[in-house]
Amino acid sequence: MLRLINLELQKLLLNRASKVLIFISFILPFTVLVLSSIKINFFGFFTLELGELGIFNFPIIWHITTFFAAQFKFFFAIVVVSMIGNEYSNKTIKQNLIDGLSKKEFILSKFYTIVFFSLLATILIGVATFLIGMYYSSYTEATIVFREIEFLLAYFIKLVGFFSLCLFLGMLVKRSAFALAFLFVLFIVEWIILGLITWQANFNIAEKIQNFFPLKSMHKLIDQPFQRIMMTKFPEKTEIAYDYAVHWYEIVIVLGWTALFVFLSYRLLKKRDL
Predict the structure, then answer these.
(1) Using a CB cutoff of 8 Å and minimum separation of 24, what contacts does 200-206 make?
(2) Over the stretch 257-267, which tens digit does the pLDDT of each residue have?
(3) CA of 265: how far to CAs of 96, 110, 140, 211, in Å?
(4) Which of 150, 118, 155, 110 is nearest to 261 (CA)?
(5) Is 161 helix (H, G, I), strand (E, B) or coil?
(6) Spatial contact of 211 and 217, defined as CB atoms under 8 Å apart
(7) What is the separation, in whole angstroms, between the first and last Cα of the chain?
(8) Nearest C-alpha neighbor of 260 from the set 179, 177, 169
(9) Source organism's superkingdom (predicted)?
(10) Residues 107-163: pLDDT tens digits?
């Protein structure tokens, strides 16, 4: 495994564009650190400091930081599809197979790299969240601090699942731009299917079915935290309550899609004439 990861890292770090995108994909999520220190002066009347609003309290901070950090996954998605596109355009995929790398090892090298970067991103976000929380949070008891740390697991699974989808699309079309376009098409198709099911049945049934779709299931791992923030400020408004927890079946659905995308990537490579 380490040999395959090292092989991919050498390819990525020799490519300037990949290095820039990897750097951006790791740096941008840390804008939460900048947000935590922002002070907005409203014409001298009062100063608003986000860190003092309670949104960085434990345990809600795990939800907020992972949700916003996940919005920047698109940058590393470009790296993933580029890994495949460059292999075909530079003919390195054929050379790797000639040099003794099996087709299974080729796909695994990409997948292991995806897992490696996802794990690294999760660790960095976890450390940053913990430090921000310890600085701003009113609660420092261990039982409260680590109460919702499962959002980190959901963040990791979400990244691995999304990048595995990008791996499959990259293998399917062999060009980075087309793979990213297919990603957008898949998003549109999911919503079209939602509309058709709603038309034939009702929205509640359609939404439950949509939760099994690839992109929607990944999105559902970490629901938006805005309503939850409102709930902390207005606990008497029970109508805004919603289920924001990380559920085991949501993780299983995304893991199922991840396994399928990796398997299909391997099957495409195995049957394709290089």
Answers:
(1) none
(2) 999 999 999 99
(3) 17, 10, 45, 23
(4) 110
(5) helix
(6) yes
(7) 24
(8) 169
(9) Bacteria
(10) 999 999 999 999 999 999 999 889 888 888 888 888 989 999 999 999 999 999 999
The encoded tokens of residue 217 equal 């299931």
Residue 207 and residue 130: Cα distance in Å, rounded?
A: 34
Q: Take residue 93 and report the two structure tokens written for it.
A: 């995929």
Q: Cis link prior to 29 (omega < 30° from 0)?
A: no
SS3 at position 77: helix
DSSP states of 47-72: EEEGGGTTTTSTTHHHHHHHHHHHTT
Q: Please answer whether residues 195 and 210 qualify as being in contact, where contact means their C-beta atoms are separated by less than 8 angstroms.
A: no
35: left (phi over 0), alpha (psi -120 to 50) or beta: alpha
pTM above 0.85, yes or no: yes
User: What is the C-alpha separation between 213 and 135, in angstroms, rounded?
Assistant: 39
Tokens 């947000």 map to which residue? 35
Pairing of strands 39-42, 46-49: antiparallel
